[in-house]
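Take a look at the protein record below and tell me what you see:
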Amino acid sequence: MIVAVLALDQVMGFELMIPGQVFGMANLAAAELRADADVRKPPEYPEYEVRVCGQRRSISTTAEWGLVEIRASYGLDALVEADLVVVPGTHRFLEEPEPRVISALRDAVDNGARAAAMCVGAFTLAATGLLDGRRATTHWQFAGELARRHPDIDVDPSVLFVDEGSVLTSAGVASGIDLCLHLIRQHAGADLAGRTARRVVVPAWRDGGQAQYIEHAGPAAADHPLQPTIAWMEEHALDALDLEAIANHASVSVRTLNRQFREHFGATPLELLARMRVDRARRLLESTELTVDRVAAQSGFGCYASLRYHFLRTAGVSPQRYRQNYTAGR
């Protein structure tokens, strides 16, 4: 699979390097999975070839964040050969791209490539018209400007990334990593995406519907007083847990339990429990052919209505839509 990264003048250096890092790690993770597998049935994983395609053969990163001169091995004409074109942000994102950049992006998509914009790279992709009539996102700080300039785009400033099939967009900076992992998960499955995430040392999955701005950190540190209770909740997520049972395990009152969870996680114990159950459901939807009713039962929700309600709140899509998204291309 050829991944072409569009390098425009004053490109955001970090975003330019994300695809090479993530897809390169995916190649190493795939070799690792093959080595661990039964030699009689080695798993088939794709080989990702990442090509940096420059607006000119010599381009500069954003000077304000550390000027680096980069010599690209490929030009814009190479975009048409790609299976995936990644569009990082550039410091000049409010300027109209050169006509040949717009033409090269359109030709690539017309030839069957998917186009994925990172952060304010959405402005470059929007200039091609490929986002018209579609939902898209960008960095929350510039979402209003994107909507003003391109009223035909349904701009959602509250999510990490949006997958519209042939075109995808992500929010600020680090969500570009989430977007690349999402693409690997779609293309090659959850095992490779998870192993890649561990190599990059990031969460294996942050759903596209998750809010861009997260005030509180995730799991407690190993020595945090709440960690034994978190581990116990995960172990007993299939049980009918309530606030009193969780508080008893933590040896605190329900009121104190709620306060401590809100302070550390920005969520109540029951909200966190629901997220744990959604994560179980997500893995079952990815890796099994169980009916959604069985997924609901085996993830702790009991019934499909409860699963669908919490899945929509957490992932932003229904369980059926999620399964369709993450089994595509297998």
Q: What stands out?
A: Residues 211-221 have pLDDT under 50 and may be disordered. The domain at 2-200 is CATH 3.40.50.880 (Rossmann fold). The CA atoms of residues 238 and 298 lie 7 Å apart. The radius of gyration is 21 Å.
